[in-house]
Amino acid sequence: MNNKLKKQSLRLALILAAFSALGPFTVDMYLASLPQIMVEFKSNASMIQASLTASLLGLGLGQMVMGPLSDKYGRRTPLLIALILYIVSSSACALVPNIESFILLRFIQGVAASAGIVIAGAIARDTYSGVELTKFISLLTMISKVAPLVSPNAGSAVTSFSSWVGVFVFLGLLGILITGITAWGLEESLPVKDRVTGNFIELIKNYNRLFRDRIFIGYALVNGMLFAGVFAFVAGTPFIYQNIFELSPQMFSILFAMNGLAIMIGSQIVKRVAGSLTEGSIFRIGLWLSFFSSSAILITVLSKGSLSAIFVSTFLFAVSIGIIGPVSFTLAMQSHGQIAGSASAVLGTFKYALGAVTSPLVGIAGEQSAVPFGIIMITTSLLAIVSYIVLIRKVGTQSDGIKKARTNA
User: Which family does it belong to (predicted)?
Assistant: First the structure.
């Protein structure tokens, strides 16, 4: 790739990373404020974590709508409409009188933010394919993970001179900035001639096609299961770090942000070895790393181990996510370029929908127990391995056998 193409690739990655950043900022920035919000609304940990669950559901289910809309109407228009909704819902979160209204608005905020995530993936698939797509997604992942590094600390910085309300004012301003980037810095990547035609039934048929592809669903499930573990970490660590290990909100934000650095390291590994190792080999390395690191997490919490042991184990788990994410996206999308928006939506929805299931379970044993967190982490890793064996390796082996039989015939 020459220097001009590298600069174009970097520019596009920076723009798409800005869109993708809405998800992490929406989820992560208010985490350090969860205990404060619990006091403000006179609520409990489970109800406060339900606001996180609502945003994750919005991020997941919203992609199922935004993806097909972007296949039909192009990438720019649905994104701009969603960004306006994001600005309005973020501002409203700062004004709510009760926890119920807050949870509802968090869902709407998640739906709006989902457009940035799914459309960023679709634009990448519009522009690249094969090994180049893997390398670009790795670059995009590395850049976009600046958001998890920055967002918790940004939240702590805002709450140091304001209340939790200031976090949502900041998110509204962030929405305005990204709207400007979209309006003046993003070119349409999906020509009219390549857009999906037909009515709502045709869009449903596209989803049917995706769900009937067992290998595609296999990669979606593996990625989704592991990200469910990530969201268990997101929901659990504010209470584990601050209540059990008595860390300050600022120190929690620093340790939490280090996991974003770990994902960046994993994605950089993929970028370096892509082309030397097959995507399948890289994928399996990440899968086994996730299993061993999540096993270490469970052992640590059951033995009431140290903070450093939990931190190192979760750091390695995050590295595995950085490895698996870009490769699984390429492998899943390689046969579905014509409906990239819908395919990207399914991949994203699995992550956030499964994360919405695990995040409230972390607190079922109370604010002083990390055992549910450890159990969820190992369970998601095991389910990811099972999904790989049943839906990817088994189907791939059968396909290879059919090809050989045809060749011999």
Answer: Belongs to the major facilitator superfamily. Bcr/CmlA family.
